[in-house]
């Protein structure tokens, strides 16, 4: 699991738990990086866990940061809510160095967060997690009627779409008229 | 808790739609026109095929998985699904009482390019005209097409120009009896032609036919026609695809020869010689005939109340010539 710091300038993060290794394997020091979301809470994550994210993996692969440099330069993901980033970091840690199973039972259960999670995972390019999340989205409508699906996936009816389109046209017309009037005023 | 799906970027929507089964996508297409459009544009990564037998169900399939859309008139049963390992069913409404509109809707939703099987087996062919025109317009491939015992034969006659343009690739089967003056030319011949009442299939059709297997029942072809056919066949390069020809015709008789052989044509010098191809089709006591290029065919023609011509052109890779007849049976349940 990741250790989490409240802000970038707090005390040194706790040492991460490392997976037990066989006695024969040579000990390779694990490198860590730091990420934070919109809430500025910094998460310490191992390079191994971050390999799941093609985006971050691409960013760190040639950096060669020391521990201090990495700590001083956390990757900012201002477009991702802190709790969502926490979920992503947790998932990456849980699946560090493991082959991803065809079905993932460790997915976050909060459906209200699913939309943001999918967007974050898509942004961070975590392919396997994205597939799981999209599957969960797809599963939401299994065996449901069109009316129920409209509700679950917030799909407007044809009438609502038409009304929205009319409204948008009306608004665009008003805006255009306003601009014309303003331009005429300027000319005077 | 709802999720605003249509606000997903397209690549995410595509991934979600990819994970939906055909029933989900069908129901989704019924949510709204806009949603239907998005799922149609994005949700077609697989090579689905469709089958329609003119009754109250359509089958959308891929490999061994079949999704049957079955007509129900009870609104309470709409969208009820039954999922199995390979066979899945969903009850739906068939608008306007027929499956044609549903068929067109399904090929749109799934971006279907191949019709696995299409059979016009009952009722009026008129409702199929619309469907056939769509298939022709979209240049869709129809692997198997069958016309059954349609009541209004004239409708089929009127349908012939469209039929001749359909891209039937594997098999065309026709059980319908046409008027004597009926005539049409297929633009492209499928691998198999199986015509139950083939009086309209003239010698000109036969001479142009590029099929692998041709079966003509109740034919009007005569000894003279067949002699013409075999003289053409003997020429190098002619009928390169043909492997099996079977014709039953009242006009096959013993009054004139075919390939200078008097009828009946059968091997009397070496009885019990059997020729077997594809492990299914056999002729016993057939006569060896050869093309100018050396290709060998085996011919047998019987005369009687209704003459029967059988002709096999084996491939050296898969044919067997046996001196023992036992075990060689004419098995029509072939898969090729």
From TrEMBL, chain A:
Function field: Probable essential component of SCF (SKP1-CUL1-F-box protein) E3 ubiquitin-protein ligase complexes, which mediate the ubiquitination and subsequent proteasomal degradation of target proteins. Regulates cell proliferation during embryonic and larval development.
Region listing for Disordered, in residue ranges: 1-25, 160-188
GO aspect biological process, one term: ubiquitin-dependent protein catabolic process
Descriptive protein name: Skp1-related protein
Alphabetized PANTHER family for the sequence: SKP1
Domain SKP1 component POZ: 38-96
Pathway, per record: Protein modification; protein ubiquitination
Organism: Caenorhabditis nigoni
Superkingdom of the source species: Eukaryota
Pfam families per the UniProt record, alphabetical: Skp1, Skp1_POZ
Sequence ranges assigned to domain SKP1 component dimerisation in this UniProt record: 127-170
Basic and acidic residues composition-biased segments: 165-177
Protein family according to the UniProt entry: Belongs to the SKP1 family.
Biased composition range(s): Low complexity: 8-25, 178-188
InterPro entries for the chain: SKP1, SKP1-like, SKP1-like_dim_sf, SKP1/BTB/POZ_sf, Skp1_comp_dimer, Skp1_comp_POZ
Keywords, comma-separated and alphabetical: Ubl conjugation pathway
Automatic annotation (TrEMBL), chain B:
Domain of life the protein comes from: Eukaryota
PROSITE patterns: FBOX
Domain F-box, first and last residues per copy: 2-34
Pfam hit, one: FBA_2
Protein name (record): F-box domain-containing protein
Protein species of origin: Caenorhabditis nigoni
